[in-house]
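Task: encode each sequence below as structure tokens.

Item 1
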Amino acid sequence: MIGRTDTLSDGCGARAPSPRRARADRFAIGLERVLDALVGAMILVMAVTVCWQVVGRYVFDSAPGWSEELSRYLMIWVTMIGCAGVLRRGGHMSVTALLDRLPPAAASVLLWVRDICLVATLALLTWYGAQLSTMMGAQQTATLGISKGWIYAAIPVGATLTAFMLVLARIAGAPFRATEEGTEDVLHKE
């Protein structure tokens, strides 16, 4: 599992795992598990909250106002943190028609270009998301009464975590490319 390149290879052939790559891969796997647990807990809270809202509205004829707001804000955080959580295992949708037809060296270059563009985009999201979060910090949500800055903080937090996972994947030598078998098969091979 550590240093493996069979399912997440950049097409350049297998490389012997160095201690640095093995540590990066172990850390990425651990961080991915933490993020998955966090996202799972948030989804559980969302599900309970939405069920409570439905029961309140249709059974008791009085839905709590905070439940819809909480579930909406949790969905934002789930999306942004989940983005980082699925990166290493190739869980993001991708169109690989060109990549599949390139020789291994050209495919590797294309993956590097992709990663550089992704890091640049994530840096912009982090920068402007932090500014937006700071700017919105003075406003409060309608029913929960928390600062909107906390909601908008999902943007820079998610972008930073995603960039960090990308760097870890590169250090580990696995540029998160799902195989033709699909993401489910990649997950079961670990």
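Item 2
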Amino acid sequence: MESNGGLDPAQSSGKGTPLIVESAPAICAIVYDAVDVLLDLPMAGVITVNNITTPVIELASFCSNDWMADTQIDFTLDVLAHDMDHFCPDSQFGILRLPCTNKLIQLSNLRDTDAATYPSNAKPTRFIRKIGDDLVSKRLTSVGGIFHINSNHWVVAVADVESRKIYYGDSMAADQSPEQVGRCMVPQVLKWWLERHGFFDMSFATMEVCSQTDDFSCGIMSFMALAHYCLPQRYSLPHPLYAGVARVDLLRRIISLHLATSSDFEDSELAMFSTSPTLDPESTIPRPSTPLPSESMRQLQLDFSAHLSVSPMKPGRKRSRREEATSGQA
């Protein structure tokens, strides 16, 4: 069964009420497929995709309400990279992996300090500079990825140097105007980085992303927004109530990709934006620590929610921008 995010596009715009009863057979099929492939793996083993290895048992968190951590996000990006390579082999879109997006934020934060190192050819920044140079040479025309902000939240952004636009999506503030987008940290980071490579006239735009209705779906919402941007015919935006289904279907895709490519993935073009080939193995960028974000859990309002486990209590509930504005006026 090929994946389109596991959802009927007619029911997945994030607007209106999903047809739960009519969707039940498709939902069950997705869950059963994912469980079947998961049970085929040794629970004491590991799974490796694009040189990222994790214990098989940790994959079970895709079938839960656990907040998606960095390894899980990178695995989803590998699925998208595989689909891009298969369906759009001539695409000039570059997927920024988490080492890239984290490094961009770090470099931007250091830009006005004595520790500023970009855009030099120093080893820790060389792979970021190469991506910028690829945009200048038109080998790439756009790049995008998922960014970790505020120590507890995933957002999505795309920079298109042909249209001169930076698109930004935040599932906690999906209805932001372009003016509001321009004041957010990640678009400003991308603007600063692109200016280092001669792109000085970038404007801001809102990226299509579904609003999350819980405290833990920012990861899957950000991924689906990026996948929908890259392959709109393959990925539909999930209704918030179907976020769990999208996660389970991605689990099936990740395992299938592991089984199909683990032997020859290192030579694949999909590894291009993971880490720089010029970096020594011992000097690769440390993976970020991503703490669990929020305290309360809302039960999914679907029959299949009984199959999803509940994550441990999490500190500090996220607040939407509207809540923050209201409290600031009080």
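Check on item 2: The domain at 9-276 is CATH 3.40.395.10 (Adenoviral Proteinase; Chain). The radius of gyration is 19 Å.
End of task.
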